[in-house]
Amino acid sequence: MLKNSQKDTIYAQAHEAIGAFQFDESVVAVFPDMIQRSVPGYQTILTGIGELTKQYSQANTKLYDLGCSLGAATLTMRRNIQVEGCEIISIDNSKAMIQRAEEYLHAYHSDVPVNLKCADMTEVPIENASVVVINFTLQFIDPEQRDELVKRIYQGLKPGGVLILSEKIHFEDQAIQTAIENMHWQFKRANGYSELEISQKRSSLENVLISDTEAQHLKRLNNAGFTSASIWFQAYNFASFLAIK
Fold first, then answer.
1. 33 in any annotated domain
2. What does the function comment of this entry state (predicted)?
3. Where are the strands (E) in 54-208, listed by range?
4. pLDDT at position 3, please?
5. How many other CB atoms are found less than 10 A from the CB of residue 92?
6. pLDDT tens digits for range 67-115
7. pLDDT in tens, 167-200
8. Is the dihedral of CA 133, 177, 203, 20 positive or negative?
9. Domain annotation covers residue 196
Protein backbone atom coordinates (compact mmCIF):
# COMPACT_ATOMS: atom_id res chain seq x y z
CA MET A 1 0.00 0.00 0.00
CA LEU A 2 1.16 3.53 -0.73
CA LYS A 3 2.47 5.39 2.29
CA ASN A 4 0.60 8.01 4.35
CA SER A 5 -2.84 6.57 3.62
CA GLN A 6 -5.66 7.11 6.08
CA LYS A 7 -8.40 4.59 6.84
CA ASP A 8 -11.48 4.91 4.65
CA THR A 9 -14.38 6.07 6.85
CA ILE A 10 -16.12 8.28 4.25
CA TYR A 11 -19.41 6.38 4.47
CA ALA A 12 -19.15 5.23 8.10
CA GLN A 13 -21.73 7.80 9.26
CA ALA A 14 -25.23 8.12 7.86
CA HIS A 15 -25.57 10.85 5.19
CA GLU A 16 -28.91 12.59 4.66
CA ALA A 17 -28.26 12.69 0.92
CA ILE A 18 -25.73 10.56 -0.95
CA GLY A 19 -24.01 12.59 -3.65
CA ALA A 20 -22.39 11.10 -6.74
CA PHE A 21 -18.97 9.58 -6.06
CA GLN A 22 -16.11 11.97 -6.85
CA PHE A 23 -12.33 11.64 -6.69
CA ASP A 24 -12.00 14.68 -4.43
CA GLU A 25 -9.66 15.47 -1.51
CA SER A 26 -11.59 13.24 0.91
CA VAL A 27 -11.27 10.23 -1.40
CA VAL A 28 -7.62 10.95 -2.24
CA ALA A 29 -6.68 10.87 1.46
CA VAL A 30 -8.06 7.34 1.93
CA PHE A 31 -7.78 5.95 -1.62
CA PRO A 32 -5.08 3.28 -1.05
CA ASP A 33 -7.03 1.86 1.90
CA MET A 34 -10.34 2.11 0.00
CA ILE A 35 -9.14 0.22 -3.06
CA GLN A 36 -7.30 -2.51 -1.09
CA ARG A 37 -10.44 -3.21 0.97
CA SER A 38 -12.87 -2.92 -1.95
CA VAL A 39 -11.19 -4.58 -4.96
CA PRO A 40 -10.38 -8.31 -4.61
CA GLY A 41 -7.10 -9.21 -6.27
CA TYR A 42 -5.93 -5.60 -6.56
CA GLN A 43 -2.37 -6.31 -5.43
CA THR A 44 -2.13 -9.30 -7.79
CA ILE A 45 -3.21 -7.06 -10.67
CA LEU A 46 -0.52 -4.50 -9.82
CA THR A 47 2.09 -7.26 -9.71
CA GLY A 48 0.85 -8.54 -13.07
CA ILE A 49 1.03 -5.06 -14.60
CA GLY A 50 4.67 -4.98 -13.56
CA GLU A 51 5.38 -8.40 -15.08
CA LEU A 52 3.60 -7.50 -18.33
CA THR A 53 5.49 -4.20 -18.48
CA LYS A 54 8.77 -6.11 -18.15
CA GLN A 55 7.67 -8.43 -20.96
CA TYR A 56 6.23 -5.91 -23.44
CA SER A 57 7.92 -2.53 -22.94
CA GLN A 58 10.01 -1.60 -25.98
CA ALA A 59 13.09 0.64 -26.08
CA ASN A 60 12.54 4.31 -26.95
CA THR A 61 8.75 4.19 -26.52
CA LYS A 62 6.10 5.74 -24.31
CA LEU A 63 4.10 3.93 -21.66
CA TYR A 64 0.75 5.34 -20.56
CA ASP A 65 -1.13 5.04 -17.27
CA LEU A 66 -4.57 6.43 -18.11
CA GLY A 67 -6.56 7.30 -14.98
CA CYS A 68 -3.44 6.91 -12.86
CA SER A 69 -5.02 8.04 -9.55
CA LEU A 70 -2.15 8.02 -7.00
CA GLY A 71 0.29 6.33 -9.37
CA ALA A 72 0.31 2.75 -8.02
CA ALA A 73 0.37 1.27 -11.54
CA THR A 74 2.88 3.91 -12.66
CA LEU A 75 5.23 2.87 -9.85
CA THR A 76 5.07 -0.82 -10.70
CA MET A 77 5.53 -0.06 -14.41
CA ARG A 78 8.54 2.15 -13.70
CA ARG A 79 10.17 -0.50 -11.48
CA ASN A 80 9.88 -3.13 -14.22
CA ILE A 81 11.10 -1.29 -17.31
CA GLN A 82 14.35 -2.95 -18.39
CA VAL A 83 14.95 -1.24 -21.74
CA GLU A 84 16.42 2.16 -22.58
CA GLY A 85 14.74 5.38 -23.62
CA CYS A 86 11.26 4.90 -22.12
CA GLU A 87 8.98 7.57 -20.71
CA ILE A 88 5.78 7.04 -18.69
CA ILE A 89 2.89 9.44 -19.23
CA SER A 90 0.41 9.30 -16.34
CA ILE A 91 -2.96 10.99 -16.75
CA ASP A 92 -5.76 11.75 -14.30
CA ASN A 93 -8.53 14.35 -14.40
CA SER A 94 -8.47 14.81 -10.61
CA LYS A 95 -6.06 17.58 -9.60
CA ALA A 96 -6.00 16.25 -6.03
CA MET A 97 -4.95 12.80 -7.29
CA ILE A 98 -2.16 14.20 -9.48
CA GLN A 99 -0.79 16.36 -6.65
CA ARG A 100 -0.63 13.38 -4.28
CA ALA A 101 0.78 11.12 -7.01
CA GLU A 102 3.69 13.56 -7.43
CA GLU A 103 4.53 13.15 -3.73
CA TYR A 104 4.48 9.35 -3.97
CA LEU A 105 6.55 9.21 -7.16
CA HIS A 106 9.21 11.57 -5.79
CA ALA A 107 9.66 9.25 -2.80
CA TYR A 108 11.10 6.54 -5.07
CA HIS A 109 14.21 7.13 -7.16
CA SER A 110 14.22 6.00 -10.78
CA ASP A 111 15.96 6.94 -14.01
CA VAL A 112 12.70 6.46 -15.96
CA PRO A 113 11.01 9.85 -16.41
CA VAL A 114 7.33 10.17 -15.51
CA ASN A 115 5.22 12.96 -16.99
CA LEU A 116 2.18 13.52 -14.74
CA LYS A 117 -0.69 15.41 -16.38
CA CYS A 118 -4.04 16.57 -15.06
CA ALA A 119 -6.13 15.98 -18.17
CA ASP A 120 -9.07 14.11 -19.67
CA MET A 121 -7.78 10.70 -20.79
CA THR A 122 -10.20 10.69 -23.72
CA GLU A 123 -8.43 13.73 -25.17
CA VAL A 124 -4.78 12.76 -24.64
CA PRO A 125 -2.93 11.70 -27.82
CA ILE A 126 -1.52 8.16 -27.68
CA GLU A 127 1.64 7.81 -29.76
CA ASN A 128 4.72 5.59 -30.03
CA ALA A 129 3.33 3.44 -27.20
CA SER A 130 4.44 -0.03 -26.15
CA VAL A 131 2.32 -0.40 -22.97
CA VAL A 132 -0.97 1.31 -22.09
CA VAL A 133 -2.64 0.67 -18.72
CA ILE A 134 -6.21 1.56 -17.80
CA ASN A 135 -6.63 0.31 -14.25
CA PHE A 136 -10.29 0.55 -13.13
CA THR A 137 -10.95 3.80 -15.00
CA LEU A 138 -12.81 3.00 -18.24
CA GLN A 139 -15.85 2.18 -16.06
CA PHE A 140 -16.06 5.88 -15.11
CA ILE A 141 -15.90 7.09 -18.74
CA ASP A 142 -19.10 7.84 -20.68
CA PRO A 143 -20.01 4.51 -22.38
CA GLU A 144 -20.38 6.35 -25.69
CA GLN A 145 -16.71 7.42 -25.54
CA ARG A 146 -15.23 4.01 -24.71
CA ASP A 147 -15.05 2.53 -28.23
CA GLU A 148 -13.28 5.57 -29.64
CA LEU A 149 -10.77 5.69 -26.77
CA VAL A 150 -9.82 2.03 -27.21
CA LYS A 151 -9.49 2.54 -30.99
CA ARG A 152 -7.14 5.49 -30.44
CA ILE A 153 -5.06 3.41 -28.04
CA TYR A 154 -4.79 0.62 -30.61
CA GLN A 155 -3.73 3.09 -33.30
CA GLY A 156 -1.12 4.65 -30.98
CA LEU A 157 0.46 1.32 -30.02
CA LYS A 158 3.48 -0.03 -31.82
CA PRO A 159 3.24 -3.58 -33.23
CA GLY A 160 3.68 -5.96 -30.30
CA GLY A 161 2.43 -3.32 -27.88
CA VAL A 162 -0.22 -4.08 -25.26
CA LEU A 163 -3.25 -2.62 -23.54
CA ILE A 164 -3.79 -3.81 -19.96
CA LEU A 165 -7.39 -3.03 -18.98
CA SER A 166 -8.76 -3.73 -15.49
CA GLU A 167 -12.47 -3.27 -14.82
CA LYS A 168 -15.38 -4.17 -12.62
CA ILE A 169 -17.61 -6.33 -14.81
CA HIS A 170 -21.18 -7.55 -14.61
CA PHE A 171 -22.80 -10.77 -15.78
CA GLU A 172 -25.67 -11.24 -18.23
CA ASP A 173 -27.02 -14.17 -16.21
CA GLN A 174 -28.88 -12.55 -13.30
CA ALA A 175 -28.44 -15.55 -10.97
CA ILE A 176 -24.66 -15.44 -11.49
CA GLN A 177 -24.64 -11.65 -11.10
CA THR A 178 -26.47 -11.90 -7.76
CA ALA A 179 -24.22 -14.68 -6.45
CA ILE A 180 -20.96 -12.92 -7.33
CA GLU A 181 -22.21 -9.51 -6.19
CA ASN A 182 -23.02 -11.07 -2.80
CA MET A 183 -19.50 -12.54 -2.67
CA HIS A 184 -18.06 -9.08 -3.30
CA TRP A 185 -20.13 -7.56 -0.51
CA GLN A 186 -18.94 -10.31 1.81
CA PHE A 187 -15.35 -9.49 0.79
CA LYS A 188 -15.96 -5.89 1.89
CA ARG A 189 -17.56 -7.00 5.17
CA ALA A 190 -14.53 -9.22 5.85
CA ASN A 191 -12.34 -6.13 5.30
CA GLY A 192 -14.19 -4.18 7.99
CA TYR A 193 -16.85 -2.28 6.05
CA SER A 194 -20.25 -2.02 7.75
CA GLU A 195 -23.62 -2.58 6.06
CA LEU A 196 -24.16 1.20 6.16
CA GLU A 197 -20.83 1.86 4.44
CA ILE A 198 -21.50 -0.76 1.76
CA SER A 199 -25.00 0.56 1.09
CA GLN A 200 -24.02 4.24 0.95
CA LYS A 201 -21.00 3.58 -1.25
CA ARG A 202 -23.21 1.57 -3.63
CA SER A 203 -25.65 4.50 -3.83
CA SER A 204 -22.87 7.00 -4.51
CA LEU A 205 -21.51 4.93 -7.41
CA GLU A 206 -24.89 4.43 -9.07
CA ASN A 207 -24.84 6.04 -12.53
CA VAL A 208 -21.16 6.96 -11.98
CA LEU A 209 -19.53 3.54 -12.32
CA ILE A 210 -21.17 1.88 -15.35
CA SER A 211 -19.73 -1.58 -15.90
CA ASP A 212 -19.61 -3.70 -19.06
CA THR A 213 -19.74 -7.48 -19.46
CA GLU A 214 -16.72 -9.56 -20.44
CA ALA A 215 -18.28 -10.00 -23.89
CA GLN A 216 -18.68 -6.22 -24.33
CA HIS A 217 -15.04 -5.62 -23.44
CA LEU A 218 -13.76 -8.32 -25.79
CA LYS A 219 -15.99 -7.10 -28.63
CA ARG A 220 -14.69 -3.53 -28.14
CA LEU A 221 -11.07 -4.73 -28.14
CA ASN A 222 -11.61 -6.85 -31.26
CA ASN A 223 -13.44 -4.04 -33.07
CA ALA A 224 -10.54 -1.69 -32.30
CA GLY A 225 -8.18 -4.08 -34.11
CA PHE A 226 -6.74 -6.26 -31.33
CA THR A 227 -6.59 -9.84 -32.63
CA SER A 228 -5.32 -11.23 -29.31
CA ALA A 229 -7.40 -10.28 -26.25
CA SER A 230 -8.39 -12.20 -23.14
CA ILE A 231 -8.90 -11.95 -19.39
CA TRP A 232 -5.58 -12.75 -17.69
CA PHE A 233 -6.88 -12.35 -14.12
CA GLN A 234 -10.29 -12.36 -12.43
CA ALA A 235 -11.46 -12.23 -8.83
CA TYR A 236 -15.25 -12.20 -8.39
CA ASN A 237 -16.60 -9.33 -10.53
CA PHE A 238 -13.22 -7.68 -11.09
CA ALA A 239 -11.21 -8.64 -14.17
CA SER A 240 -8.07 -7.56 -15.99
CA PHE A 241 -7.76 -7.97 -19.75
CA LEU A 242 -4.62 -8.22 -21.89
CA ALA A 243 -4.87 -7.09 -25.52
CA ILE A 244 -1.85 -7.45 -27.83
CA LYS A 245 -1.38 -5.56 -31.09
1. no
2. Catalyzes the conversion of S-adenosyl-L-methionine (SAM) to carboxy-S-adenosyl-L-methionine (Cx-SAM).
3. 62-66, 87-92, 114-118, 129-135, 157-168
4. 44
5. 25
6. 998 899 999 999 999 999 999 999 999 888 898 888 888 888 889 999 9
7. 999 999 999 999 999 999 889 888 777 655 555 5
8. positive
9. no
127 domain-assigned? yes
Q: How confident is the model at residue 145 (pLDDT cuts 50, 70, 90)?
A: very high
- The domain of 157 spans 42-170+209-244
Residue 181, in any domain of the structure? no
Pairing of strands 87-92, 114-118: parallel
Read off the CATH number of the domain in which 77 is found: 3.40.50.150
**Known binding site for S-adenosyl-L-methionine: residues?**
42, 67-69, 92-93, 135, 202
Domain count, the chain: 1
CA distances from 183 to 4, 39, 237 (A): 30, 12, 9
What pTM does this model have? 0.85
Please report, in range form, the residues annotated as the binding site: 42, 67-69, 92-93, 135, 202
| Distance between CA atoms of residues 182 and 105, nearest Å | 36
* Amino acid making up residue 234: Q
The closest alpha carbon to 147, from 122, 120, 130, 119, belongs to: 122
